[in-house]
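Thread: Newbie trying to understand structure tokens

Hi all, I'm a second-year student working on a class project, and my supervisor (Dr. K.) asked me to get a predicted structure for one chain before our next meeting. I've only ever worked with sequences, so writing a 3D structure as a token string is new to me. If someone could post the tokens and maybe explain what I'm looking at, I'd be very grateful. Here's the chain:
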Amino acid sequence: MNLLFSINQKFVPLWSQCMATILRHGGADRYDLYVLHSDLTEADGARMRAVLRPQDSCTLVPVPDDLFEGFPASGRYPLQIYYRLAAPLVLPAELDRILYLDVDTVILNSLEPLYTSDFGGTAFMACSHTRKFMDKVNQARLGLEEGVRYLNSGVLLMNLTLLRQIVHLEDIRDYAEQYRRRLILPDQDILTALFGDRALVLDSRIYNMTDRLYLRCNATPGEKISLDWVGRNTVVVHYLGRPKPWQKNYIGPLGGFYRRELVRTLAKGAVLF
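---
Reply by user tm_fold:
Sure, no problem. This is what the structure looks like when written as tokens:
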């Protein structure tokens, strides 16, 4: 299974815990990791490889400093968030598909059913956390075509073969410049605007469960689910937004899954740098 991450040095410890849950529950016999970055060292790479099993691999892929020069960025949204948009252009040509994961995720069940899914002619698979009203708002804000869902970029199964044909850095840069003042979550906004009409939208309860989504489901008649249901059915829990389970003042309902997995990781003597 090919996995993609995009991080800087300060996120290596969080990556370690995310990867520990993948190794525990992800279901693949082998993982080939590709890490897009601009500041990781060979020493960082060695520490990351030490987390893996002998059959797994980890390749650091440096992204040129000037590739996204001038793009909107902040402390919360560094330039690294854009790297996944250029992934089809910088990853090895022999790769035909890859699963991108944010490192603020926890894997609870096998990734294999998702990874082996048929793209059906789409460029990637992703989830949406918005309903019809907000989809309409985002269509107006970002100039989207009617019916395009607003996508979350934290979990992306990429059809690299097709994406290499349609991803052009000039288009990404032009859109970012044109809509600079309207961008709120820059990478997601651009992903949705340029490629949302080529996406297969997945069930967020399974592949991108969040605290907010869990609460929304349980406030909606006919959609109620339990934490036990999440543990049995959800594949990816995504702790987007703030605060997160490893930060102060977190009170989200899904924090128990992070704490449980962290205890399991530490019990095996793992060092999270």
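A couple of things are worth pointing out once you decode it. The CA atoms of residues 4 and 100 lie 4 Å apart. The beta strands are 2-6, 32-37, 57-62, 97-101, 105-107, 124-127, 152-159, 199-202, 236-238. Feel free to ask follow-ups in this thread.
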